[in-house]
Amino acid sequence: MKRYFFDVVSGHRSEYDYRGRDFPTVDAANQLAELIALDLAIDPDGKWYGWTIKVRGAQGQQFFSVPVRDHSLAAA
Q: How far is CA 75 from the centre of its chain?
């Protein structure tokens, strides 16, 4: 198992994940990042639109990022 951290980042602010979660593969971590992005995208105020879920390892290396899309596109 490897620990992954899911930071929610915009151009002006960052919400860091200090706890992380353990996953057996990077694909499993990617699935959670996609789910987080979808969950944030359905916010009716659209306040998360344009933010990004950045997935990093315990040493700080970034593996990938998932954008939070416009909520009107989330259901498409």
A: 18
This prediction's pTM: 0.88
Asked if residues 53 and 7 have their Cβ atoms less than 8 Å apart, the reply is yes
The SS3 of residue 28 is helix
Is 51 in a helix, a strand, or coil?
coil
Residues 4 and 21: beta-carbon distance below 8 Å: yes
Alpha helices in 6-76 (DSSP H): 26-41, 71-74
Cα separation, 74 vs 37, whole angstroms? 9
User: What is the tens place of the pLDDT at every residue in 18-70?
Assistant: 999 999 999 999 999 999 999 999 988 889 999 999 999 999 999 999 999 98
Q: Among 44, 61, 43, 41, which residue's Cα sits nearest to residue 52?
A: 41
